[in-house]
Write a structure and sequence with these properties.
Elements lengths: L1 E5 L3 H13 L3 E5 L2 H10 L4 E4 L2 E2 L2 E2 H10 L6 E5 L4 H9 L4 E4 L4 H15 L6 E4 L2 E4 L4 E4 L2 E3 L3 H12 L5 E2 H9 L10 H16 L4 E6 L3 E6 L5
Parallel strand pairs: 1-2, 1-3, 3-6, 6-7
Antiparallel strand pairs: 4-5, 8-9, 9-10, 10-11, 12-14, 13-14
Helix pairs in contact: 2-3, 6-7, 6-8
């Protein structure tokens, strides 16, 4: 899961970023309005944490522009302001939650997980596809009740595929989601192919009735075995 933190207070940015990295999220950061706008208009995020007061502009302006462009990102406002008007304005512009500083990191994490469940997992902690279940909170995958051992990147890929079952996921979108926008600097995406190959092998060995199909030159689709639809 990929999170963007838009925050100009360095200490808080580092604290929240380090905490989320330890919780196995892919984390990207922006410290002002213009760099934040560039990121939200180019990349997709599972969740965006945005401060209202930013150098060069406002977090509410970011929400307004995202709404105009019909871009969503599961947004949580994190702000020192505790104004009812700001909360209402932010929620009207598409924010999903509002957390007032100072806050506990565990509370922030709970809010993030709640937003992700509501938006991407239909409110469920566990998503079942075929005989495979993905536990997004415990970061575990089971096939017919038996745990499938995955490394961090394999879990992130499979979770993304499970959410997007039967949909084409391009190599570029998969790389950006799992590895972050640093993949823009990569000479090629061969590392994605290698990770997908390992994931496909593990699914087959554990008897999962799902497989990751190649769409030559474009990307991948997670399908149930024998499903040609």
């Amino acid at each position: 899961m990929k999170i963007l933190i838009i925050e100009d207070e360095y200490g808080l940015l580092k604290t929240v970023g380090d905490f989320l990295l330890a919780e196995k999220y892919v984390v990207e950061k922006a410290t002002d309005y213009h760099s934040a706008m560039e990121k939200v208009m180019i990349y997709d995020y599972d969740c965006i944490l945005v401060d209202i007061s930013l150098p060069g502009g406002s977090g509410l302006q970011i929400l307004r522009e995202m709404k105009k462009e019909n871009r969503t990102g599961n947004i949580i406002i994190i702000s020192a302001k505790n104004s009812l008007d700001d909360k209402i304005a932010g929620l009207d512009m598409g924010a999903d939650d509002y957390l007032t500083k100072p806050f506990h990191l565990q509370e922030l994490h709970a809010r993030i997980k709640a937003v992700l469940r509501r938006k991407q997992q239909n409110g469920k902690q566990i998503l079942t596809q075929g005989n495979l279940s993905v536990d997004f909170v415990q970061r575990q995958v089971h096939v017919q009740g038996k745990q499938l051992k995955l490394n961090r990147k394999e879990f992130d890929m499979l979770a993304f595929f499970a959410i997007n079952k039967n949909r084409l996921v391009t190599k570029e979108v998969l790389a950006e989601h799992v590895w972050g926008d640093s993949t823009d600097m990569a000479d090629n995406l061969d590392f994605v192919y290698s990770q997908v190959k390992n994931l496909r092998k593990k699914l087959k060995e554990t008897g999962a009735d799902l497989t990751v199909e190649n769409v030559y030159g474009i990307g991948y689709i997670l399908r149930e075995t024998g499903d040609e639809s």
